[in-house]
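Supplementary Methods S3. Input chains for the assembly prediction are listed below.
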Amino acid sequence: GAVVSQHPSRVICKSGTSVKIECRSLDFQATTMFWYRQFPKQSLMLMATSNEGSKATYEQGVEKDKFLINHASLTLSTLTVTSAHPEDSSFYICSARLAGGLETQYFGPGTRLLVL
Amino acid sequence: AQSVSQHNHHVILSEAASLELGCNYSYGGTVNLFWYVQYPGQHLQLLLKYFSGDPLVKGIKGFEAEFIKSKFSFNLRKPSVQWSDTAEYFCAVKAGGGYQKVTFGTGTKLQVIP
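Predicted structure tokens for the full assembly:
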């Protein structure tokens, strides 16, 4: 149980285009989903917290107009990287927290984004 | 804000050796502590967690961690590692009570040599 999927697993796009990444909780409802970014040899950096039916809460330094987050249902959150630049190339990971759960997060497999 | 330090970035052990990975955090209040593991090509999985109670926490696959409040530490241990334990291990901390974000350490890559 508690499986989280991400789609796509890898994406290559041209600079200036937008890319949407989906995060789904497959067998549970997640009132809260988290989006992280992981740089090589560095820790996971929380970008934003997504609550179903409300606006996402962004961490300091994360541009909300560039990284659009939508959490339209209890099983789906999307991250859209708008007007992508090469420096946005990274590994993006989502996690989901069980509704009413004890703070345990379940992680997706991640999405590797490469912006040319 | 809380922070997490993992001092060992890369650890190489032979099978059957004992393992201890260090994790120290900085936060003066109540904390929830986690160890996550990421096997090659797989996503992060919860290994064990501490919320309250017995400071010695046992997780899956023979791992355990001990919360020492006075040292702000939550070290991960395993008495005898196996080749299949080769993975990256992340310590994480959340300030307890209500909504707080989870902060991750930089991770420790463990390589177990058969």
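Chain A has a mean pLDDT of 90. The two ends of chain A are 37 Å apart (CA to CA).
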